[in-house]
Amino acid sequence: MNKIKVFSMVVMLVSFTHAWADGAPGKVIGATTADSWLAYKLSSQDGFTFVDLRSLEEYKEGHVPGAVHLDYNDLTEQSLAAIVDKKSRVVFYCSGVNSELAGWASQKALDWGWQNGFVFYYRTGINEWVQSGLSLER
Fold first, then answer.
1. From the CA atom positions of the chain, what is the Rg in Å?
2. In 47-93, at which residue ranges do the beta strands (DSSP E only) sit?
3. Fold (CATH) for 24-131
């Protein structure tokens, strides 16, 4: 019986790891998935903090106007709380659909207690932002 439980847990872990390793997940349960149109609308409203998870070099090359940088390697509950409190809206993004960083960060925020409806997952990221003709801040 214990062997079956262990085997089931290993299969689930491998499946989960594989799903995240293939790039951006289609959605994160509990987070609102945003495309560039919604991200643009949110960026022009007060009360939304955009968090860029790319490297500092990429961030400096251009980012969503007003976004703050938080390297994904430094993402902890404490580092995120220093930027945005758990009752505020946060929008995570990275390079786009070939990167799992924004999905991963969205899931971590939910796990750490950021509320459903307050976590936004900008799945298509900065690549689609640029392709949509939206301006960058440098």
1. 16
2. 48-52, 68-69, 89-93
3. Oxidized Rhodanese; domain 1 (3.40.250)
Tokens for 85, please give them. 């409190």
Q: Where are the beta strands (DSSP E) in 1-138?
A: 32-34, 48-52, 68-69, 89-93, 119-122
Q: List phi, psi (to 5°) of 120.
A: -115, 135
Q: For residue 91, what are the β-bridge partners?
A: 50, 120
**What is the tens place of the pLDDT at every residue in 86-101?**
999 999 999 999 999 9
Distance in angstroms (rounded) separating the CA atoms of residues 57 and 87: 30
Which of 56, 53, 60 lies closest to 122 in space, CA to CA?
53
Backbone CA torsion sign across 80, 57, 98, 47: positive
* Strands, sheet with 48-52, edge to edge from the N-terminal-most edge strand: 32-34, 119-122, 89-93, 48-52, 68-69
Report whether 39 contacts 64 (CB < 8 A): yes
- The string of pLDDT tens digits covering residues 53-65 is 999 999 999 999 9
| φ, ψ for residue 89, nearest 5 deg | -85, 135
Classify 50 as helix, strand or coil. Answer: strand
